[in-house]
Amino acid sequence: MKVDVVLGSFYGDEGKGKIIDYLGTKADVSVRATGGNNAGHSIEVDGEKFVFHLIPSGILNKGTTAIIGNGVVVDPKVLIQEIDALKEKGRDVSKLRISDKAHVIFPYHIALDKLLEENRGNSKIGTTARGIGPCYCDKYERCGIRIGDLYSKDFEKKLETNINNKNKIFALYGYPEMDYKEILKEYKKYAKTIKKYVCDTTVLIQELIAKNKKIIVEGAQATLLDIDFGSYPFVTSSNPTIGGILSGSGINAHQIGEVYGVMKAYSSRVGEGPYVTELKNETGDLIRELGHEYGATTKRPRRCGYLDLVALKYAVLVNGITALCMNHLDTIGKLPEIKLCVAYKNGDKEFKEFTTNEEILLNSKPVYETFKGDFQDISNIRKYDDLPERARKYIERIEEYVGVPIKFIGVGAGREEMIVR
Ligand code: IMO
Ligand code: MG
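A: This is the predicted complex of the input protein with magnesium ion.
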């Protein structure tokens, strides 16, 4: 059976949790392949709200194996908090599996993330300060400590070397140094707690595929936050696009089935960086309030704007998106008038190809098409044809532009408030 992938099409926070939740109820296995606890996936089940940062939300479905793949960076403290919170709510976590190849976030990564950000002056990235970037840096520097290393005889030496090296940086900036013994003690405790979940998930995933199990991959972050394809340097330090899904899990290209791109009927971004359709006015504020656009991870107010089809088309091409999942149709439908960005204008030049060139993006203005809003209450609608004509017109223009169908349409926050086509 083919593996289906859910990933973000824009700057994150598209509501991936909702579609993952829907598909997850039909899956045997749920996998996270990239990022770390910079992600925040909110899910509402029977009136109970869950926010996941690390554990695949598929864990909520009885019997589902939830795998944290090799491409993820794991903060064990956060992981254990998430495990405990699930247990407290009576959820079964016995089928959680963590890759022995996933890299571990240590307190010095978090301190470094903050140090670097504080010293960027006017060119801040607006990171989540969870140590994600510095942990991936160590991975590629080849001094990272992996989950499997926590159980090796070299662990103490590796940790001591890393802490000594990072302390030199902290000293240089006048920041407090880290205490090796304290961190060692803390992480030995964490290692013991999570040991029962650790295994070679690459082998496990291939075994599960061979057994014809249904697997879905829960993407984190999004296309425009991708280190290669996003608006560099205002990006995260991994590849949330399809390539990262493969290298972060050990699933091969032939095994991929549907690639679902999640998007909102409008757009949002947290952190710094160019954002062509951003509305720095009352309409942007209104979208933020109507859509409750405040970060699940950092609680920061999100920047909001109209949907950008230039960027969406790019996401479709880069990832091979086969179908889209659009959230918040109800939210955008509350505006009297809606706009869709169909091209960028830079000076006299109009173009439809997304670029990651910061200068061009910063100087580009959106070219809009205007649609009628005011959809009224659509939250109880479950059949596409029952949507008001003005809502269908909006949807069909998006489909026509990007060339893939919108298969799932969110009409409210609840689990059931969705149209499936
Ligand atoms: P989900 O999975 C939105 C953004 C940060 C910052 C940049 C780099 O919930 O969609 P990092 O801490 O990763 O080094 O920060 O990336 N960012 C996200 N924005 N949703 C996310 O995840 C994000 N993960 C990272 O705001 O601009
Ligand atoms: Mg988020």
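The mean pLDDT is 96. The chain has three domains: 3-99+197-259, 103-193, 263-420.
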